[in-house]
Amino acid sequence: MAKLYFSYAAMNAGKSSNLLQAAYNYRERGMEVLLLTSALYKDDPAGKISSRIGISADATLYTQETDLFSLIRIHKESGRLDAVFVDEAQFLSREQVWQLARVADHIGIPVLAYGLRTDFRGELFEGSAALLAIADALREVRTICECGRKATMVVRLGPDGKALTEGDQIAIEKATYVSLCRRHWEERMGRKRPD
Q1: pLDDT score for 81
Q2: Exposure pattern of 137-152 as b/e (b: 16+ CB <10 Å)?
Q3: What is the mean pLDDT of residues 83-101?
Q4: Beta-bridge mates of residue 5
Q5: Arithmetic mean of pLDDT, 10-36
Q6: What's the mean pLDDT in 127-134?
Q7: So which residues are the catalytic ones?
Q8: What is the spatial distance between Cα 139 and Cα 6, in angstroms, rounded to a whole number?
Q9: What is the pTM for the complete model shown?
Q10: Domain 4-142: which CATH class?
């Protein structure tokens, strides 16, 4: 029985490298996979998933307008397809998450989505909220704060190196992000400590 999986984390936890390793494992066993990534942060016009540790793979780009169910069904009809991997899943629309669930439920192909849970303001992304609500399996990919605790939050730094407290949820320009535990996130965001 195929499922919809969501692996989530703060920035720099290794989500993309985990995705690439899992896709490699499928391919090593002679299986065919489809890799998808958001067109928002494309470094390559053809589409590519890259990890900070230097591994990468070609991928099909999706936008908010892409009908993922149709795209995957057409890909399946043109040949074998054993799994679908989605990077930057936080940028999916709610409807696209449902399309991925239908891929698992009606086409019988497992879908493994990887992405951020929250933005720099501590708010859920639309795609992440939908995945947390309907995915069959949730997995937290862990990273650590500068203090050694588990990092669950992220701050976006401005040009002056200070945490931004306002701004668009999605910043297309190359911004600097730092993963922090909730306590240090609150400190950087200027929130008051309890008395």
Answers
A1: 96
A2: eeeeeebebeeeeebb
A3: 97
A4: 112, 137
A5: 92
A6: 97
A7: 88
A8: 6
A9: 0.88
A10: alpha beta
The pair of three-digit structure tokens given for residue 122, joined into one six-digit string: 């501590």
Show the DSSP H helices in 64-159 as ranges.
68-77, 94-102, 126-134
Identify the bridge partners of residue 86 per DSSP, sorted by sequence position. Answer: 36, 113
Q: Say what percent of the chain tops pLDDT 70.
A: 92
DSSP tag of 145: -
Q: Phi/psi at 182 (nearest 5 deg)?
A: -60, -40
**Token pair 């399309």: residue:** 99
Asked whether the CA dihedral 155, 129, 95, 109 is positive or negative, the reply is positive
CA distance 67 to 75: 12
Strands laid side by side in the 4-9 sheet: 60-62, 33-38, 83-86, 111-116, 4-9, 137-140
Packed helices 94-102 and 68-77: angle between N→C axes, nearest 10 degrees: 30
